[in-house]
User: Fold this.
Amino acid sequence: MSVQRSSSPNSVWDSIPGIAFGGDYNPEQWPVDVRLEDIELMKEAGVNLLSVGIFSWALLEPKEGEYDFAWLDEVLDNLAAAGIKVALATPTAAPPAWLVRKHPEILPVTADGTVLERGSRRHYSPSSAVYRKYAAGITRKLAERYKDHPALALWHVDNELGCHASEFYGEEDAEAFRRWLERHYGSIEGLNEAWGTAFWSQHYSSFEEIIPPRAAPTTLNPTQRLDFQRFSSWALMDYYRTLLAVIREVTPHVPATTNLMVSSGTRSMDYFDWSENLDVVANDHYLVTADPEREIELAFSADLTRGVAGNKPWILMEHSTSAVNWQPRNQPKRPGEMLRNSLAHVARGADAVMFFQWRQSAAGAEKFHSAMVPHGGRETRVWREVVGLGEALGKLSAVKGSIVESRVAIVFDYEAWWASELDSHPSEDVKYLNVLREFHRSLFLRGVTVDFVHPTADLSSYGLVLVCTLYCVTDEAAANIAGAAERGATVLISYFSGIVDERDHIRLGGYPGAFRELLGIRTEEFRPLFEGEETVLSDGTRGRIWSEHVHLDGAEALASFTTYPLEGVPAITRRSAGTGSAWYLATLPDREGIERLVDKLLTEAGVAACAEAAAGVELSRRVQADGRSFLFAINHSREDAAVKADGEDLLGGGRFGGVVPAGAVAVIAED
Ligand code: GLA
Assistant:
């Protein structure tokens, strides 16, 4: 359900010329002379958008009902005079001390009953009625004060909803959970049936008996956990909507968003579900510095963000110029890495590149986190690279608004992520992303762009559709996936997909119940592998984590297990379906096995790379509605790399010469 509005908000893109560039700005940490220097430095770097006021509540309302907006007035006026737009934050991610002292019941409670105290941030439960009232109150004050301010281009609601804690187990949360269940199931009998409460004497006589899945002696009811996960994602979004309702009422013309945390590590919020409430999708992304393939994880996150955004341009709301401060060892980015990271996000659909934060803090918990203006000021590599990035983005205005081109879809479902990783399953090694990330990696390395799509999305434009560990699936989604194959796509489904319905009830009659017919196979028993155990397939593929006893029922075997006790049992199968095909994969292949399989799938689907390029070059193409196309070639290697493309070199100027220097990026406006 989306919040009603009296008129459509403007687009944030209309208020900013070219690609947006900037970051979180926390001027309240600095005296006036530094704030004035900030404006000069922002102009030097070409900054045009800033998120302001994210953690300012205690200064804006130092005592209940006593406000001090003078400093923010000055900051916004100066930014407006400099032509810089603002994503104004509701300062609600850190409630002030006076509020918590007066209402300690707003504090979050964990599954084991621990109350999380103030002293850091995000110390509130989104279901607290009192908190919602106060958060809506300060939002209204801000909206009324700045509704006509020329700097205001976007609302930045709260900050990273679900960061640090995303599930809340207190009494008020329990009450909200009960009401959510009541709306969802209508009757307690419906809930008993869905939760399978005949098992372990869990039958309920009324919704009042229900509690969240708090710490318990052993395995909790899996459907209760799945529903609590659904509820928890909904509760955060419902809190967002409370603030959005105020924003819509007071500033119907101003678009609103909140910064998501789409990545391979964030699974608690169903961002596909959230996106309908966001006028523009915004994401924060941080590299895991110790990951030698961190550019692939970045691409995964950016591709998934684009999926959440429905393939519309999105905002990279935060990333880092260099080191973060919250990993065990925080190395700075390598020379040129920030530019490659930034343009990789743009290559994958971002029309805004922003950072946490503008000026590196001198005090507080994040003083060792890099920023656009480092502790060392202008005489630093980071500052020079920030200025260089501003220049580069300035040359990419023609790219703004274009759409990323892709003919491969990976079906992505947060519910399947949650449900597949519940406990008491055949193997704790089965992780939702295991197979999915292997496919994405292989396609990334080949220069083939992937879209992530919800299981019920329109799949008609894709030649290849990959369905990985889609453990729970609705009838509607299963039919949608089957329809893609029938209409000509090559569809691959991996193990532990289609096993249960949305209530986490087994689809009986042989696995994988939802896809048995489409695939033309029937599995009678799973045989997960022990840690370190491998199975070998007849085509040489080595499999890890999983094997199973598959029978053919209309499909042909492309490869079989060769190891005891599954010798001769099909491991990779294919069935023609309509004008397309349905493939099954019954293990997690090693890298060579994945390459072999992806070769075959791409050939059958007739899908090719964006361009021919040397190894180490990341490729992506964005296309404007009028047909102009832009090839992004990002050279992650330390050697010059050849790329076959003809057109204008937007960053270097002149014709593209066919080589992207070591560590550099080329954006080619193709002929
Ligand atoms: C998150 C937060 C920011 C900051 C950064 C540090 O993204 O939104 O306030 O804490 O992390 O990496």
Summary: Residues 159-160, 284, 286, 318, 324, 356, 366, 369 surround alpha-D-galactopyranose (CB under 6 Å).
